[in-house]
Amino acid sequence: FQGIRMEGTAAISNYVNKGTVITGAAGMLSMFIFRATLITTTFFYSFECRNIAFLSGTFGTTGPKSALLSLGSGQSSRPFIVENCTFKGFTAAIKSDMMGTSLSTGICNVIIRKNFFLNNTYSLHGVGTDSIVNLDFADNQAGTGGGINAAVGGPYYIHNNLMESNATALGNAPSIVISGGLHNGRITNNYFEAITTGDLIKVSATA
User: Fold this and answer.
1) Which residues contact 138 (CB under 8 A, 6 or more apart)?
2) What is d(CA 149, CA 96) in angstroms, rounded to the nearest whole number?
3) Are 20 and 3 spatial neighbours (Cβ–Cβ below 8 Å)?
4) CA atoms within 13 A on the CB side of 42
5) Is 103 in contact with 134 (CB distance < 8 Å)?
6) Which three-class secondary structure state does DSSP give residue 60?
7) What are 71-81's pLDDT values in tens digits?
8) What is the mean pLDDT of residues 91-99?
9) What is the dihedral of CA 52, 65, 112, 148, to 10 degrees?
């Protein structure tokens, strides 16, 4: 996907009629779903998305729950790149869900950079073992909610992001939750704002 971002459209209110905007109806699982015909069938794809504003509402209750949803993969679906986009009002703006599949990996070589997340429960949500493999989440702004909760495989790098309070959506849950095997990971140079209780980061690993 390649949208248009026009000059002077930094604020959410300015995206309407001034760039590429995608909206959807309440009750939709996602605006876009990536999957094979059968959820247990292996498939390949690569995906790139740039310069698009995805708008839902009230943490996915008055609009679609997700903007981008991958349901299973099984082979390395790579790369999965999202840059310079806006996501507002979702339960999970970007989600990879491996539950109910017999497959081994979700989206791979995942690059999430220079995006603006606002009023989302999760900016990035990975459900199921190795739902997100090789993650680079960098230079994003996640305001008023928009934490990361992912079961990762391979190395992960979460750096140079602004993570604002997620109390409205998640209570006192950490802003970053990473689980998985014994992987190489780096969480560095992030700015956390208005998070007054609970943990900032929670990382767990299994041998």
Assistant:
1) 112, 113, 114, 157, 158, 159, 160, 161
2) 11
3) yes
4) 6
5) no
6) helix
7) 875 565 678 89
8) 87
9) 150
